[in-house]
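Re: the request from the purification team.
They wanted to know what the chain is likely to look like in 3D before they choose a buffer screen. I agreed to run a prediction and write the result into the notebook, where they can find it.
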Amino acid sequence: MLKAYFNTGDEIVWQELALYKVPTDEVAEKLQVERLLREFGARAVVIRKDFTIFETTGHREETDKLLAVLAPYGLIEFVRSARVAIIKASNGFHEKLKEFEAVEPASELIENEFLNKQAEVFSM
């Protein structure tokens, strides 16, 4: 971590990403998918015989509304990201990174020693 900032909700623009996995046969038979996509600004990211995955972004209330609509149709899985935000009054975080780098240049890149040991480290 380089530095932490606290910003109020009025100072940022934010969204959350949500993914919804539902049975394709339920969705195809009982839902008007085109209406659903338009109404919630969603899009189908995966369509398979056994399931379809929809993606949408928005505030929690918006993603919860689509969750409520899809739940009766056999929702298989639902995941939501944390907030992703941009500061309204900022010149961009990359400019801050340049400032940090100018003051304290990074040393050589250090590789993670465990990257080549995945089978040993990440076993079930």
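For the purification team: The first strand starts at residue 12 and ends at 22.
Please add any questions underneath this entry.
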